[in-house]
């Protein structure tokens, strides 16, 4: 196959999808006919401690890897070695993903054609019992004794691939793997320059569809901006056709994580009021606990139902949540259940102990004394909500992102150096990009907190 260059790749990695995989050993061997030439072999410093199972299998230690180059330092060499080559490996899609994962954090997009020797073996050697590398090597008499020795593995895959090449005399199977089925074409209206779609990154962020005058008509978020934007052009619904035919250009912002993409989308929709964003422009109902003096001068607490307003107080997305908070305040500060609306004047009450009520409802307590406790309850309501930060991936390996919540109110997000130690709120406030606390941002943060409690960092 004189017109094709192959690069057989083997590596040792740790980590699990969807988290980034870290490469600690990498070897590349160029294949030209019956000849194989090793062009790259190196340990790689993962810039973090390696798991114990990696030490057991490979004999590598943190001390050895600490003296090795980082992936950033060898990335240019790797790209040069793989240039104009077809990537070959046993389970090559996993190896390709590992390289993508490392390059992604360097801000590079990595994608190249691949051939999997495992899948190719299934086509050319159809009667094997299984297609794991040790078994194939044993049956085909290919030297391979230590499955955790990267050098032996690379030599074994190279030999296996060379034998498969000889079996595929007319390159029929090789070409089948290289030339995938025609991908679904992206319909891009004449009003939209194709370059805007083609050059979008496959990374988390927000995207903006703009009309011929540069006005933003739609804002969206995505884990993969390019794939999500293309999906708009695949869709033939009336709404999507209107969106696509009105679009002249497409802009985007990288956020590094889906959480920040959701928050940034909500921020942009409120700020830009795009014509074709409907859902987040609805007047949603929220619930607030508010004080109100009656004719006797007694401060009563009640749940107020109103469309969302930007206020630095705790909001409740469900009435039941507001009731539970009122129950807590009533018990903690010895408030009267009638004055907090938990019982009616007819005496019907919720299943809760109100024995601590001191009689404001019967005139046995001075309003000023009772009101002082209500004021304490309101201070507690605004102060008790936790201060916390959520740390997520940044837009590159050289940074990480954070979301700041103070007293239960979303403050905004920002980016910082991964090595920066965070001990207090003040450490983050200088890096914060302030944003509005809205119904949607509150819902986004609450849902994330419920799903990922291990990622919440409480602050003083």
Automatic annotation (TrEMBL):
<dbReference type="Pfam" id="PF00929">
    <property type="entry name" value="RNase_T"/>
</dbReference>
<keyword id="KW-0234">DNA repair</keyword>
<dbReference type="InterPro" id="IPR013520">
    <property type="entry name" value="Ribonucl_H"/>
</dbReference>
<keyword id="KW-0378">Hydrolase</keyword>
<dbReference type="GO" id="GO:0004527">
    <property type="term" value="F:exonuclease activity"/>
</dbReference>
<dbReference type="InterPro" id="IPR047296">
    <property type="entry name" value="GIY-YIG_UvrC_Cho"/>
</dbReference>
<dbReference type="Pfam" id="PF01541">
    <property type="entry name" value="GIY-YIG"/>
</dbReference>
<dbReference type="InterPro" id="IPR035901">
    <property type="entry name" value="GIY-YIG_endonuc_sf"/>
</dbReference>
<dbReference type="InterPro" id="IPR012337">
    <property type="entry name" value="RNaseH-like_sf"/>
</dbReference>
<keyword id="KW-0228">DNA excision</keyword>
<keyword id="KW-0540">Nuclease</keyword>
<dbReference type="InterPro" id="IPR036397">
    <property type="entry name" value="RNaseH_sf"/>
</dbReference>
<keyword id="KW-0742">SOS response</keyword>
<keyword id="KW-0267">Excision nuclease</keyword>
<feature type="domain" description="GIY-YIG">
    <location>
        <begin position="202"/>
        <end position="278"/>
    </location>
</feature>
<keyword id="KW-0227">DNA damage</keyword>
<dbReference type="InterPro" id="IPR050066">
    <property type="entry name" value="UvrABC_protein_C"/>
</dbReference>
<protein>
    <recommendedName>
        <fullName>Excinuclease cho</fullName>
    </recommendedName>
</protein>
<keyword id="KW-0269">Exonuclease</keyword>
<dbReference type="InterPro" id="IPR000305">
    <property type="entry name" value="GIY-YIG_endonuc"/>
</dbReference>
